[in-house]
């Protein structure tokens, strides 16, 4: 790497329950953060935060994130197919409950997702995920901090003043 790449944080914003926690970590590490959604979303007025509103439609926010993501990216999402797209570009994804999706874990995550989707479609599984908890929030904070530390060890810079899309 001749020019150091800058760590970027992308939040799949429409249904992200850990925005506030992600903002705190981003501020601590000086990471430019993009909150991507299909509609207006009020966010704090901070230099390191940027709201991105994409067109209405299935997967428009996911497509925007996947297009912008690179090996310095960290993406917060519950969407396993989006996580797969990010991982294929060298980035990492983290679920709001703290589950890390990287090259070592994404294959199993996709297989599990596909299995449960098939079971739901056939009527075998009718329940959804368990309720989001404080333990999930804590696990997310730990996973996000770990992801930032790993990106820094890989040589990426956490400096939002240099991070413009």
TrEMBL record:
<dbReference type="InterPro" id="IPR003791">
    <property type="entry name" value="UPF0178"/>
</dbReference>
<dbReference type="Pfam" id="PF02639">
    <property type="entry name" value="DUF188"/>
</dbReference>
<protein>
    <recommendedName>
        <fullName>UPF0178 protein BBC0178_000180</fullName>
    </recommendedName>
</protein>
<comment type="similarity">
    <text>Belongs to the UPF0178 family.</text>
</comment>
């Amino acid at each position: 790497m001749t020019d150091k790449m800058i760590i970027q944080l992308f939040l799949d914003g429409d249904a992200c329950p850990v925005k506030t926690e992600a903002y705190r970590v981003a501020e601590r590490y000086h990471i430019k953060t993009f909150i991507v959604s299909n509609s207006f979303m009020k966010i704090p007025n901070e230099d390191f935060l940027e709201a991105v509103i994409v067109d209405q439609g299935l997967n428009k926010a996911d497509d925007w994130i996947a297009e912008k993501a690179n090996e310095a990216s960290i993406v917060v999402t519950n969407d396993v197919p989006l996580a797969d797209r990010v991982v294929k570009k060298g980035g990492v994804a983290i679920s709001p409950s703290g589950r890390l999706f990287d090259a070592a874990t994404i294959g199993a995550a996709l297989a599990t997702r596909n299995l449960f989707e098939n079971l739901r479609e056939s009527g075998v599984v009718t329940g959804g995920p368990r309720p989001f908890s404080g333990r999930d929030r804590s696990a997310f904070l730990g996973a996000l901090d770990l992801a930032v530390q790993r990106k820094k060890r890989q040589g990426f810079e956490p400096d939002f003043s240099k991070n413009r899309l």
